[in-house]
Amino acid sequence: MMNTNPKNRREEALDYHSEGRPGKIEVIPTKPYSSQHDLSLAYSPGVAEPCLEIEKNPEEAYKYTAKGNLVAVISNGTAVLGLGDIGALAGKPVMEGKGLLFKTFADIDVFDIEVGTKNTDEFIETVKNIAPTFGGINLEDIKAPECFVIEDRLKKELSIPVMHDDQHGTAIISAAALLNAMELTGRKPETTTVVVNGAGAAAVSCSRLYLGLGIRPENLIMCDSKGVITSSRTDLNPIKREFATSRDIRTLAEAVKGADVFLGLSVADVLTEEMVRSMAKDPIVFALANPNPEISYEAAMHSRPDIIFATGRSDYPNQVNNVLGFPYIFRGALDVRATAINEQMKIAAVRALAALAKEPVPDIVATAYNSSRIAFGREYLIPKALDPRLIVCISIAVAKAAIESGVARRKIEDWDAYALELESRMGRNDKLLRNVRSKVLNSPLKRIVFSDGDKPNTLKTAAHLVADHLARPIMMGDRKRIERVAAENNVDLTGMEILDFRSDEETPRRARYAAMLHQKFSRRGLSMNEAMKHMKERNWFTLMMVVAGDADTSILNYSRRYSKALEAVKALFTSSTNKTLASMVIVTTKKGPMFFSDMAVNTSPTSEELVDITRATAAAVKRFGIEPVIAMLSHSNFGTDNEYEASKVAKAVEVLHDRYPEIIVDGEMKADIALDKKTRNEFYPFNQIGDRDVNTFIFPNLSAANISYKLMEKLGGAEITGPILVGLPAGVYLIADTASVRSLINLATIAVANAEPGE
Fold this sequence. Notes:
Strand order of the largest sheet: 7-6-5-8-9-10
Distance between the termini: 27 Å
Strand content: 5-15%
Structural class: alpha/beta
CATH architecture of the largest domain: 3-Layer(aba) Sandwich
CATH topology of the largest domain: Rossmann fold
Low-confidence stretches: none
Number of strands: 21
Shape: globular
Mean pLDDT: 91
Oligomer: single chain
């Protein structure tokens, strides 16, 4: 959920789209280009060779160009989201957003095309003329009834997949939910009665697909803004006449009486509790108006206990979300070079989605949604949007249907190999952080205390956490200064607790914390007077809030030296049994998330410290729902150098293999060997990592680790999240006071996800 303050929301959205490189997508080269030789192959004279091959055989375009993985998202801006007819250019941010979703969920490249015409023929001709560039066409945000004409003609006149997602996306996802809801309630399609409220593109497509699944035409009633669409009405266009009923009913209330299913694709609050109570036993209600459904979740649940309910929202069960469909439908269609997306492919997607919901939910999904009880039933009709199985399940089903229905120009012989290709093709994305966020959203609110609550970026971060219901922020600092900085930066302080730790008001708390501190360290020479002094220091007071259970987790800012900021942390949280702290960062790469440790704590760790660092890092990675596969890095490979830095790593690996065989780890090895499993297995077949891909790296010293992740960030374009302290029994996180709001939000979300209430 976005920030609910309209002014803040507007500014946040504008900043998101404008900061750094404007927009949300970019084009990057996929071939080398660093030398004159590279350029001579990329362009003149070498580029002539693939041109000539394509001239001889147009199908070769799929071999020599990006056509096969390129989709056009095309709109004229006449029906943009809930904004209406805002024009082609104004709709461009939406089309870029669709491109981002295609790339994130299915690794499909997109050019967004905004066509400046409302003339149907002109629009169609424009799309036809540019179609040779693309492997598929996704029509978007085109008003009805023109969208029906445009799609129908383009499907007939082009030999590549064409789909208007506003129509078919909702239809496919809701149809999958409907199949499972009917199964749960013991219904058969041929006897199920359906009322559709709305007569736009999505409503029409849903109705047609439901009929294709076996719903009888006489059992489907459609309503528009004027009431039931009946054959006696004289104001109907050809599309509406297709669904006209001869029954003598006029209102929505009359239509839903005794009905099995209500599908809403209209406006908020048109379905009342009384109407729901008038429906048949175990009513199926899909209220899909956005952002507010035809009946609220609370009202629907209150209306009767036997209801099965779905919305388009992520904060309620059974979200009907188009992202469950279109990326994977196009993925499957592109991979077999389909000439169309036909009814067989859409129904295959429906049945695959419905079937997937009945399978045991993997741990990573359960972790993301913080629930071990996700299982097929009334509140889980369709898979969750973050389910990593979707790309394999839906894409394979669509590809098979394309082949079986005769529209595929490429056959897939080895489906297991194709499944592996789908699993591995995903590029740089933030799935891990999305999973963490989902876990937080599905957990009780936790308290997070910020040591520097008077910093602009910290306040913006806290406002985001409040607006998105991620945490209860506690802002440390002078109240007047916090209020002034908040006003200067247009930050709403609602939902934040301000704690002026040096004020007279907090004297009792300072005394209580000092007494606890004195009791803990009195035998180490800490006087009560010194303990009281510590309680007027930000970091000490912040950490004691966690120790005392007044906060669940904390974010400490540091200005210069990380090691200096750690002093209070080490004093409070290390012990004889917990001696070694380490610092880990998450590096988001094209190969997925990588974990680097130790970045900032141990300058030159000993073998035993490396063992502790590895164990703590492995435990931290597992908390993200990922099995750590660990490489212990060095400048040598498996004993090729006996220098101390290499031998200490080798010794650590020996200890890990002996004492902790459950940890997948090996070394010492160079970074290139760690990343190249083929070479690693060829030259060092004894290694215990085998065919697994390394995702976690333990560095031999702080310099190597820090330099590596900074180079990844600045030269490799990787996003860095952290640092995250590992080896701690409590929720403590340190971050530079120059950190961006995005970095702070990411780290705070992780902190909250890993916190236990009252820890």
